Amino acid sequence: MPTESTFLLAFLFIIAAAAGWLFANYSSYANKDDNKPISVNSDYIKGLNLVLNRQNDEALELFTKLAKFDDETLETHFALGHLFRRRGEVDRAIKVHQNLLARPNLNSQQRQQVLFSLAQDYYGAGLFGRAENIFNKLTNESEVNKSALEQLVEIYEKERDWEKAINAHRKLEVITGKKSPQIAHYYCELAELSRLAGDLDASRKYLKSSVRSASGVYRGNLIRASIAQEEESFAQAIRLYEKSIDFDKRLLVEVLPNLLLCYKATSREVEFSAYIKGLVNQDQDNKYYLAYSSIINRLTLEKSLFQYVEDFCINHNLISELIDINHFSKMHEEQRIEKIGKISNILRKIALDSSRYCCSVCGYSAKKLIWNCPSCKQWETVMPNQIIQFEKLFTKNN
Ligand SMILES: [Zn+2]
Predict the structure, then answer these.
(1) What pLDDT is attached to residue 168?
(2) CA 261 to CA 228: how far, in whole Å?
(3) Distance 220 CA to ligand 1 centre (A)
């Protein structure tokens, strides 16, 4: 179904075409006979009426015919191609632009624009290889090189071809004179892939290159910590995990289990406990991050963490009613632990079913940590939002 914007675009396109036609007619008449009335091509008027009556398909047919017979209507063809692509009729858009390309009288700038539009059509049709070939050629053309590189980046990000994405962004840096923070993430992606493939040296090499912006450092730290943990360099892993938590306390939910494992591997549970207490002394709000992370990561029964989950349950207006606080306070320690353990399991199940991560730019929500928002394409904008959606309890399936 055509959208409102399609109608608007069609409308503007017709106005522009009609205005162009009027101007051309006016100019030619002006030299011949000042008194001759200005006439408008009746087909344009007919097309305008069709669009206003929302008969878009018929309007498009009419304008395709008009464009065919009028050599001066390059802009009309562009608008038509754009309209077809916007409507998802990529085959027709490709035809329009291929016809344009066949014109022998295009100047260099027009040719670049037609090629760019054709590549956009291919991209829209999912023919990434063809689109990439044309965009690549256009990176050497001054008129469209920046836009072509931006389109290439989009293709490479989609294909997860990080090496090519890095090269495209480096060229963009030269054109814009600005640093591209995305490059750090591409290196982190490569580092993560190498780490998962067991090539830790390659991973470290990529991580070195990622240290070029704050974003690369923070994400790189998490990968470095994983490598250190894998290599049993626990002290280094602890240092890096704690650095990540310093960067953003919400990351506790991501790193707490591994941090605890590293402390335990070196029999430093007492130090872990001191570290946790230090976090709370630093900021009382950290108690909530600790409780949330403990619930999500099944760490509720850990000695140094239990207290925070218990405090959270007792102080929560809804959960405190569920556990019957008066009765709860009279229970033996073992019974209390059992009760909190059960409540934690329920909370964890609800939380895992919730959209626990949210993009700060577009509001996209996800169930796990992702570095590139699939909606707005921004990097490092999706973060844990520590949410447990109770309304999920009342969906049909429950
Ligand atoms: Zn987003």
Answers:
(1) 96
(2) 13
(3) 21
Question: 384 C-alpha to center of ligand 1: Å?
Answer: 13
Residue with tokens 């470290």: 204
Which residues, at least 6 apart from 23, have a Cβ–Cβ distance to it below 8 Å? none
pLDDT digits (tens, 9 = 90+) for 357-373: 999 999 999 888 899 99
How close is the Cα of 303 to the center of ligand 1, in Å? 38
Question: Angle of helix 74-86 relative to helix 108-124, nearest 10 degrees?
Answer: 10
Per residue in 168-222, pLDDT (tens digit) is 999 999 999 988 889 999 999 999 999 999 999 999 999 988 876 666 778 899 9
Q: Report pTM.
A: 0.74
Burial pattern 226-252, b for ≥16 Cβ within 10 A else e, equals bbbbeeeebebbbebbbbbbeeebbbb
Q: Tell me how far CA of residue 230 lies from CA of 195, 224, 254, 303, in angstroms.
A: 10, 10, 17, 25
Confidence of residue 28 (pLDDT cuts 50, 70, 90): very low
| Span from the CA of 253 to the centroid of ligand 1 (angstroms) | 21
**Cβ(118)–Cβ(94) below 8 Å:** yes
Domains of the chain: 4-158 (1.25.40.10), 355-398 (no CATH)
CB atoms within 5 A of ion ligand 1 belong to: 359, 361-362, 364, 373, 375-376
Cα of 328 vs its chain's centroid, Å: 46
